[in-house]
Write a structure and sequence with these properties.
This protein has 320 residues and is mainly beta. 7% of the residues lie in helices and 48% in strands. The strands form 2 sheets. The protein has an 18-stranded antiparallel beta sheet that branches. The chain is globular, with a radius of gyration of 22 Å. The two termini are 41 Å apart.
Length: 320
């Protein structure tokens, strides 16, 4: 068969146990780019056998995949990416919550079986887990997501599950509001930046890596690291934003901390993405966006001291 890129599609199955390959149940719409790179760690045996040849034997030691996926964000499927990043902390009255835990709490991340290609030539990887998730939005634009992941080794197959594109509700920039308050002990979501927000980009890092144990050529588990990432906000340079800029520039003892909420809602469905961070690097002054003077904040995550936000990242999703 001739491979035709325009026929590509992506399906996922939700695993109950890490690496237990499962049949796809969701065909993802809105995917704009996906890259899956097979990784093989091999070694030639360089031994003393009376020969000038470079090698007579070799080993394949470990096999896995690394990759990335990007697309338009929607309320229906956002929980897939949040579950993989954080693990679900609770579900109550249709609201799922997620948080960057200290790993002592058993919020088990949910892995995927991911299938990519077209009918007749598909590639499948089980045990897919994200370690990097970015959610971005801008005025007048759809909200987008981008995730980097690792997984078990790639398997080439020939068929997809008989699925249609999932029915979804898209997230849009006109549905988004930035909330911003100075301080790391204040609850995110207190003060809306009404009619002054232009852009946001929330980059969540788990510093998660795959782990191999004896008896496994593919990763059989993973190890979590320190949470990281960043929050980038672009606001119009009016009095509130300029006051925050002045506080950052004037700080002499410790960097100024902020509590941030990105709320995206169509009234019946809502994503709240909460963040506590610090302005470690001061922003440039008098930046510009299409002729409008802006304040651009680049914040790094830190521990939040509010009783409702004892972490650096937190999310809640009402998807139906």
């Amino acid at each position: 068969m001739v491979y035709i890129p325009s026929l590509n599609k992506v399906q996922v199955g939700l695993e109950t146990t890490y690496g237990a390959s499962t049949t796809a149940t969701i065909q993802l719409p809105g995917i704009t780019d996906i890259q899956i790179t097979p990784k093989v760690e091999a070694e030639q045996l360089i031994d003393k056998r009376g020969s000038a040849m470079p090698s007579h034997e070799s080993f394949i030691k470990r096999r896995w995949v690394e990759g990335s996926i990007e697309g338009y964000a929607n309320y229906t499927e956002m929980g897939i990416w949040l579950n993989g990043m954080f693990g679900q902390s609770s579900v109550s009255t249709g609201v799922s919550t997620y948080m960057a835990s200290d790993w002592s709490t058993a919020y088990v991340e949910k892995s995927l079986t991911l299938q990519y290609g077209q009918d007749g030539l598909t590639y499948t990887a089980a045990g897919v887990l994200p370690y990097d998730l970015t959610i971005s939005g801008a005025t007048g634009e759809p909200v987008t997501f981008a995730s980097k992941f690792f997984g078990q080794s790639l398997v080439d197959t020939t068929t997809f599950a008989a699925l249609s594109d999932d029915t979804v509700v898209w997230m849009m920039g006109p549905q988004a509001t930035i909330y911003l308050d100075a301080g790391t002990t204040i609850a995110p979501g207190t003060t809306p930046m009404t009619d002054i927000g232009f852009r946001f980009a929330a980059n969540i890092l788990s510093n998660r890596v795959p782990v191999w144990h004896l008896g496994n050529q593919q990763p059989d588990s993973w190890r979590n690291g320190k949470w990281g990432g960043s929050m980038n906000l672009v606001l119009e340079a009016e009095s509130t934003a300029l006051a925050h800029l002045g506080s950052i520039i004037d700080a002499v003892t410790t960097p100024i901390g902020f509590a941030v909420r990105i709320r995206i809602t169509n009234a019946s469905q809502t994503l709240d993405l909460d963040f506590v961070g610090e302005a470690i690097v001061p922003p440039n002054v008098i930046t510009d966006l299409d002729g409008t003077v802006t304040v651009e904040l680049n914040l790094l995550p830190t521990y939040g001291g509010n009783a409702a936000m004892l972490t650096c990242w937190h999310a809640s999703l009402t998807s139906s």
